[in-house]
Amino acid sequence: MRTTSILVDDDILIDAGTGVADLSIEAMMAIDHIFVTHSHLDHIACIPLLVDTVIGMREKHITVHATCETWKILKDHIFNWKIWPDFSVIPDEVDPFLRHQEIRLGETIDLNGCKITPVPANHTVPAVGFQLDSGRASLVFTGDTTSCDPLWEALNRIGNLKYLIIETAFGNGEAALAQLSHHLYPSLLFEELKKLESSPEIFVTHLKPGEESEIMRQVSNGAMGINLQPLMPQQTFIL
Fold first, then answer.
1. For position 222, what pLDDT does the model report?
2. pLDDT for residue 226
3. Is residue 37 classed as helix, strand or coil in its secondary structure?
4. Which sign does the torsion angle of CA 92, 81, 68, 156 carry?
5. DSSP string of 129-194?
6. What are the CA-CA distances from residue 29 to residues 23, 42, 63, 115 (Å)?
7. Does residue 237 lie in a domain region?
8. Does 238 fall in a domain?
9. How far is it, in rounded angstroms, from Cα 187 to Cα 172?
10. Helices 212-221, 186-193: inter-axial angle, 10-degree rounding
11. For residue 61, what is the enclosing H or E element?
């Protein structure tokens, strides 16, 4: 089972779930930046393993772009010397292997022409999604979220939105569990999509393992003419 990770331009990760394990050592060595939507394990599991794997093979540090709330959770519960060494102070605090760069909603980070902007999300822990903008087109990855009006307000301000990757973690039969855990399910997904004023290509992700076909069947049955596709492993987007 592979969990959330999106590789951008060879040197940027959006989240670092177990999908990072599909990369070669050489590909891992090229990663300079990790943008984190939130602190849940399926989105951050490979950060400590990635750092530990490549850090002796490269001179440059790795930057984790995350909200202060998310970084504190990582420091308190992962890089705490009990679960994993604190690479933010190794070899020392002046020049550590792992550095934190705070991100804030609506503030764009420009990395060699790839502009990445945090957008709102609504989850059980502090969370964001990300807009990736090449100048020609934008992709938005919602990360984990349930109903979130500020997210749609942000999306409706994006004039070049080409792709939307949105989660739908549970089927309609588990709506109560989805609401408790702040995830979407097909019926709620359709209600949320009514708030979108543009027509990007939409890809559904974060499907519960073992229930992917049934969730996508419910998505397809309720789509009402909207083209909703499952996000596929190693799928490529060109912006």
1. 74
2. 80
3. coil
4. positive
5. EEEEE-SS-EEEE--S-S--HHHHHHHTT-TTEEEEEEE--S-GGGHHHHHHTT---HHHHHHHHT
6. 10, 21, 13, 22
7. no
8. no
9. 7
10. 40
11. none
Say if CB 74 and CB 85 are below 8 A apart.
no
pLDDT at 23: 93
Residue 193 CA neighbour count, 13 Å, CB half:
26
Domain that holds residue 119: 104-231
Provide CB contacts within 8 A for 81, sequence distance 6+.
Answer: none
Calpha distance 209→231 (Å, rounded): 14
Mean pLDDT split into 10-residue runs, the chain, 239 residues:
89 96 94 98 96 90 97 98 96 93 97 95 98 97 98 98 97 97 97 95 95 93 82 92
Q: Does a structural domain hold residue 200?
A: yes
Phi, psi of 102, rounded to the nearest 5 degrees: -65, 140
Verify that 81 and 147 share a domain, yes or no: no
Question: Are 205 and 165 a contacting pair, CB within 8 Å?
Answer: yes
Same domain, 99 and 118: no
Among 84, 103, 122, the domain boundary falls at 103
Is 94 a domain residue? yes
Distance CA 147, CA 129 (A): 13
Cα separation, 35 vs 5, in Å, equals 10
For the chain, the domain total comes to 2
189: domain CATH number is: 3.60.15.10
Residue 98 CA to residue 115 CA, distance in Å, equals 22
Residue of 128, 193, 202, 184 lying closest to 156 (CA atoms): 193
